Amino acid sequence: MINTIRAEVITIGDEILFGQITDTNTAWIGTELTNIGIRVVRKSSVGDQVDAILQVLHEAHQRADVIIITGGLGPTKDDITKKTLCTYFGVGVVRNEEALALVTSFFEKRGREMTDLNRAQADLPANAIYMQNDWGTAPGMWFEYEGRVYVSLPGVPFEMKHLMMNRILPKLTGHFKTPIIKHKMIRTIGIGESFLAERIEAWEDALPDHIKLAYLPSFGGVKLRLTATGEDNTLLDHELAEQVEKVMPLITKNVYGFDDDEIETVVGQLLKEKNLTLGIAESCTGGYVSAQITKVPGSSAYFWGSIVSYSNTVKVRQLGVKPETLELFGAVSEETIQQMAEGVRKTLGTNIGIATSGIAGPDGGTPDKPVGTIWIACSTEQRTVTRLLKLGKYRDQNIQLTSNYLLNMLREEVLNQ
């Protein structure tokens, strides 16, 4: 029986708590630890205060086998991680000659003068195992203390990643006997989390103990993450595939992809496979849908162009929307969105035209058409389908949701071709 190895990731620095920089380190570290069978049980952020750092280290010691620390290893006075680790372990500092040689070489190659503060970066806690940083002057450090492994890394992402990949991860896999952890992601769209959970409840209840399910909601969809733990890689892959096969009949209509698939990538692959071309007319989304489509490399094979028809004049002149339609029904209406989708398809000469028109907010709503009232449409050579969305009051959210719903409508229509 292989025991679960638990890890905690601690980021140090006031700049993270103040929101001055975005912490991307913990997500990346969590992924890499999972890949070698180490389960992250807690992520913590703490400012540049000795007492606070000591407290979080003591707490991590109680619940984790591996404690990964990033940040606070620079040469300035606010970088206090090394001194705090000395206090925590009850040791002094020792100048590491290997680290000093690397720092010296770093400055010599750049023709810069090295200060005492720079030299002090080679001063490590006496119980530290030096981990060479090939991309900077802040060293990595490995500690073994009371049955736990502590790793201290620089906070600069590219330095941290290099140390993790080339020094820390190989050492962790040699130090611990870890289980295999495998993930399988099922990506759904157009169904809420609670409705999805109700639909697959019996299947979820029947999952074996070593396979866990997590619901990960996002704009317009929910990702279902299956996580299997065991010792046989091939067997785990087979078991995950078996569970996907069992649940798919319950949710096929709402599944657009797996693992790293994004809706715009899936749509692009379908258009390319069926040799179809796409044109887009956008009003309330202001080009956001087109930006999603063109994020995909090679999208020029199927995407011909777009018209951002923010004004009614452009809707009439470029898309062929009838003035009387706008006068009778308004820009935010089923009649208008239908003519927009058909118009962009004919104007650009594509197989498919899709369109958006609505009130994204935060103002512009009326009692009959409140903020969040949005129409979308997809026009093919066979038919034009429309849909009314009733979203919320937040502009950015409405734009992103509209894009996702429209791309899913496009996906469904292409599959029907």
UniProtKB/TrEMBL annotation:
Gene3D superfamilies: 3.30.70.2860, CinA-like, MoaB/Mog-like domain. It comes from the Bacteria. Signal peptide: none annotated. Transmembrane segments: none annotated. CDD domains: cinA. Pfam families: CinA, CinA_KH, MoCF_biosynth. SMART domains: MoCF_biosynth (SM00852). Residues 8-175 form the MoaB/Mog domain. Belongs to the CinA family. This is CinA-like protein.
